[in-house]
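Sample pair:
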Amino acid sequence: MAAARGHVGSSLMYAPGLVSSRTSLLDLVYDVGPGTAARRCDFFEAYAARGIESFFGTLSRWCREHGIELSGHEVLGYVSTWDPTSTIVADDARANFGADHFGLDRFRDRTAVDARNEHPQVSAAFGDSVARSSGRDRTIVEQYFARTLAGTHFGAGRWELTLRDLRAAAIRHHLLGARQILMHAFWQTDGDDREEIFANPRFDFAPGVNYEPWFPYHRAFAEESGRLSAFLDGVRPRTDVAVLYPLRTAWAGGPSHPYGGHVAFWTEHLAREGYGFHLIDERDLRSARSADGRLVLGDRRYRVLVLPAASVVEDDATIAAVNAFTDAGGVLLVSGGPPERTQRSGDAGPLSPTASWPALPTAAEADARLRSYLPRTVEADDPSRTVWRDEARDADGTRLALFNDTGVPQTVTVRPPSLPSRLTRWHADTGEIDPPVPLGGALRLTLGPWELACLHLADGPAEVPRDLVLDSGWTLAAGGPARPVRVDEGWERQGLPRFSGVGDYATAFDVPDGRTDWLDGARGADGADGAGWELHVPEVCTSAEIVLNGTSLGRFGWGPITCPVPAGLLRPSGNVLHVLVASSAANRYYAGTSQQKGLDPSGLTAPPVLRPALTVTAAP
């Protein structure tokens, strides 16, 4: 089939029937009481449907009558950001077909989106998400560049673009869901010296990359991009988290509603931390089924559902779908409060979230919850520097792509989902594939500056159990009786600003499935030599002794701490862990004086983790 493509831009329109009997146009501007949300949703539902059907319906029918596939890169209102309320293209994203990106995509045969400039952004992830909602996968990304320096015009572009920056942007797009990268643009002429924006090609969304002096090197970048896309194509993506795209909240609240910041927080955090996620539409949520703690959408099975400040939903059926998910054992995370109103049935019914934050959670708070329920394949030595990744399943194992998006070497530990495994490395820059090597434990891999690594981990007979994040049920005895305490921030922020000394943290926990020696059954088989568990304390301020079931695992002067758990010490249930933390003396001796410029962190500031102990092999 031939393919037709073009821009999908903002739309402004009016037609009879856009305003219902219960809605006036003033309802879009003024709060008219409890019915405001419903009236605005009525209007924008009709507006989106009319615009999408009139434009895309017409194009779609014509294309199908003539054997042509319909595409077109959607000019997302939030292009170049993670925030769907961003106003880069229009002052109000609802003007762009009611911001109903999922509804719009159902009229296309191939999904395409825009991306602007070389920094990380949500475009590819959003495009991949709407494509999967329409029964396809992955997306085309059209990459363009705008000038952002003060006193310049965005249309003058980025002639200072380097091929390294373009490559980094393309790799991130691929890892977040792009199948193909299209450049805006290749030029027939580079114009002249007149400084006329858009009238002179030289200042019309530059650069025309074929006029860059580095263009003779472009082929190597294009071939690497194609090989990376092939490595990631035709596999089943990791589906850890479904993030609801709160369309009716957007309709009711507009660009000033906080849902934009919540969507931005969750999508960027999930992307940087390597969780597999998709945005889903409310129509997807209502049609999904819930089973075995998963939200099931076709071949996608999500363990976690996030509601990002979704204050308005369609009706009680949406609330029922969310409750069915949690009743089936699914993990529901709610930020910015649960839904309050519906479009069709008044107040929203109650939910039972696994965790809820009235505002945005911190990254540590979100990660503590996510790590409690989701496996971690990759751990970076320096979590403050992003190693982007994409993880997917094929018929024989796990495909893993890693990209060091920094100018300094980064070391990661790759923990295979099962052992023993075989490691095969694909080289996207040359097309070569290394012979497989046996892997009996974790892999230590150092990535050079801006290095891309494509790895295949073949399945082994022994499944590696997930980490157990010990983030709840803690008490702290610090100069007084034990009291409940959180372990994602120090005790100085939890009512003990002047205490310096030794605090006794304590909690009790069970080992999932009673797997106290998880590799006993596979020990020695095909080179599997990992066994047992280890306790990892990622952050401690400042020194600590760890006592498990009455046995000291050691005294440690500084963190992070990792110590093996002796065989036979863990019990299937009723384990008791104490972490005795010694702080600095600052909060005691500086308290009340002019020398104190802030509270010194004291105690545990990140949850301890019980995880499978694995031997570590350096990358060949």
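The CA atoms of residues 361 and 409 lie 30 Å apart.
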